[in-house]
Write a structure and sequence with these properties.
Number of strands: 2
Strand order of the largest sheet: 1-2
Number of domains: 2
Largest sheet: 2 strands, parallel
Order of helices and strands: HEHEHH
Strand content: 5-15%
Number of helices: 4
Helix content: 55-70%
Structural class: mainly alpha
């Protein structure tokens, strides 16, 4: 695959995306990451579940701030305390 990508466009880089990384233990991710590094394979472990949790937490935080602003609470002042 990497050879094909370079053949099509030498300026493009190969990146292996390992999806559903939340199904792997930390030990397995570390093992595979070491293997890919030893073989000079650019790689990323990705988990939509983890990313969705981050988004959900940000939305809850934003909603909490919006609620406080509606109630007339100075959010910045509260944070300084």
């Amino acid at each position: 695959m990497e050879a094909y990508i370079k053949e099509v466009n030498p300026n493009k880089e190969f990146l292996l995306l390992i999806n559903k990384a939340d199904y792997l233990s930390d030990e397995l991710r570390e093992h595979w990451s070491a293997y890919f590094k030893e073989n000079n394979v650019n790689h990323i472990f990705f988990s939509a579940l983890v990313e969705q949790d981050k988004i959900d937490k940000e939305e809850v935080k934003k909603e909490d701030n919006d609620d406080e602003e509606e109630e007339g609470i100075d959010v910045d002042e509260e944070r300084r305390r």
